[in-house]
Write a structure and sequence with these properties.
By secondary structure, this protein is of the alpha/beta class. It has two domains: about 180 residues, Glycogen Phosphorylase B (Rossmann fold, 3-Layer(aba) Sandwich), CATH 3.40.50.2000; about 170 residues, 3-Layer(aba) Sandwich (Rossmann fold). It is built from 14 helices and twelve strands. The strands form three sheets. It has a six-stranded parallel beta sheet. Strands 7-8-9 form a three-stranded parallel beta sheet. β11, α11 and β12 form a beta-alpha-beta unit. The termini are close together.
């Protein structure tokens, strides 16, 4: 059996970020297959750390919460201490392979793997071709592992497949559990629209709420979670304030709910008539869409990124030019059509059966030659 290390500085259990959830599912799969996972993250420790026995906090990298890219760059201004610490941890744990979960936040550009340890760069976003750290990370590792076929195709289109690329798909932490037909029909008629999202401008959350017409009567419930990172100071606060402003405008319809744990999200979405992915930038996987489909909840989103490919007949893809109003129109039409809705709901669980921890972990192990 092998020991596999994953590195992501922002990692903590139940952190509302797709990369963290993808690592958690791989860790689950690695354990189920009889191997030992290890997760390296920046300090300080958090109250939820005990939920993950394989989590090791680095002493050489301490980050604020939330942190910016600039905070990480400052912490790594002299990379020697973190390289030495990571190499020492991997050596002590006799790690067979190291997976850097991001170019910067996952230390991929440093590739601090001891001699004899296979290394992989996990890809969740295609970076600009001129970015030095990105090019260094791609060149340093033994294998590049995009998290979806969409990302693999984007990488090929950008001419990046100069080394070995092996898709290691994201996976869900819970098994498919579709809602019974009778309950599903009741949800179609009167159930709420439910959204679960990390708060970020590109998620289009406030814009979706703003686009709701005055006569919109269906309840809309949003679980909004703040991450341990931001792209600029105050980013999440701004998005939350904009969403709360819209909720105050329509208190009869809109409710904003507190964050949920990873394994709680599918059950929350199971009680929805539908979910909406209002992102204004392409999603490279979209865990929330997959979690909704796992319980038979149809998905409405724009016609770009991985969402329309993944959902297929389990939802509706709206031309981006139609904007948030187009999402609302497509949602209304689907909810008003019992046959179309039933077909979408029944198609949903089968679309995500391949995204399970064991298959994802096996794909990773194969990519690593283990």
């Amino acid at each position: 059996m092998s020991t596999i290390a994953f590195c992501l500085l922002s990692y903590r259990p139940n952190h509302p970020s797709g990369i963290e959830r993808s690592i958690a599912a791989l860790v689950e799969g690695v354990r189920r297959l009889g191997h030992t996972p290890l997760i390296l993250a920046a300090g300080p420790a958090g109250p939820d750390d005990l939920l993950e026995p394989g989590l090791v906090r680095l002493e050489s990298v301490i980050l604020p919460r939330p942190a910016l890219n600039e905070d990480v760059l400052a912490a790594l201004a002299d990379p020697a201490p973190v390289v030495a610490e990571v190499q020492g941890i991997l050596a002590r744990h006799r790690v067979d392979a190291a997976c850097w979960a991001d170019t910067l936040w996952g230390l991929g550009y440093l590739n601090p793997a001891p001699a004899g340890v296979t290394s992989a760069l996990m890809i969740h976003k295609i970076r600009p071709s001129g970015e030095d750290r990105w090019q260094r990370a791609l060149a340093a590792v033994d294998v590049v592992c995009p998290a979806s076929q969409y990302l693999a195709e984007e990488g090929a289109a950008a001419g990046l497949h100069r080394g070995e690329w092996v898709t290691v798909p994201n996976a869900l932490l819970t098994d498919p559990a579709p809602v019974p037909d009778g309950t599903r029909e009741a949800l179609r008629r009167e159930g709420p629209i439910r959204i679960a999202s990390r708060v970020e401008p590109a998620k289009g959350l406030a814009e979706f709420l703003t686009a709701m017409p005055e006569d919109w009567a269906r309840p809309v419930e949003l679980v909004l979670a703040e991450a341990d990172f931001e792209f600029f100071t105050g980013m999440q606060g701004q998005v939350l304030a904009a969403c709360r402003e819209q909720a105050a405008r329509r208190p009869d319809v809109v409710r904003i709910l507190p964050a949920l744990g990873w394994r709680e999200v599918p059950a929350y979405l199971a009680g929805a008539a539908a979910t909406v992915i209002s992102s204004t930038e392409p999603e490279t996987f979209c865990h929330t869409a997959a979690e909704a489909m796992s319980v038979g909840t149809p998905v409405i989103g724009f016609d770009f990124g991985n969402v329309p490919t993944m959902t297929g007949p389990a939802g509706r893809a709206v031309p981006a030019a139609d904007g948030q109003t187009g999402l609302l129109d497509a949602l209304s039409r689907l909810l008003a059509d019992p046959d179309a809705y039933r077909a979408a709901s029944r198609a949903a669980p089968g679309r995500i059966t391949a995204f399970n921890p064991e298959d994802a972990a096996q794909a990773l192990l194969t990519a690593l030659g283990l």
